Task: inverse folding
């Protein structure tokens, strides 16, 4: 069946659309088309400041001087960061910067190297 997802409760492939909802004839489960679309979009793609997709283990470069909170130190433009790890949250890159140690960065301030 084209465009109709399997039932999220019993995994039946005989679900059908009824207006703005999907219905499973085997178990009787009903769900909205919006919830089905959001379930498919749960895969997050991290992107740098220029729209390039990021992956765990990538090397990136800082594109803006970044002040370190609680310190007078600054991570300078052009600092290369190797072997990043992508995480959920506001600061979505976990990494170690030589001379500074472990920290988290926002993907909007880096570019893929």
Result:
């Amino acid at each position: 069946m084209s465009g109709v997802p399997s039932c999220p409760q019993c995994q039946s492939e005989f679900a059908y659309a009824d207006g703005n909802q999907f219905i499973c004839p085997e178990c009787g489960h009903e769900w909205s088309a919006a919830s089905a679309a959001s379930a498919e979009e749960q895969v997050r793609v991290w992107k740098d400041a220029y729209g390039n997709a990021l992956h765990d283990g990538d090397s990136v470069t800082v594109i803006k001087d970044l002040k370190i909170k609680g310190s007078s130190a600054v991570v300078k433009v052009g600092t290369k960061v190797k072997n990043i790890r992508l995480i959920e949250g506001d600061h979505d890159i976990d990494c170690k910067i030589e001379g500074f140690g472990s920290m988290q960065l926002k993907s909007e301030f880096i570019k893929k190297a």
Remarks:
- The two ends are 43 Å apart (CA to CA).
- Residues 23 and 30 are 5 Å apart (CA to CA).
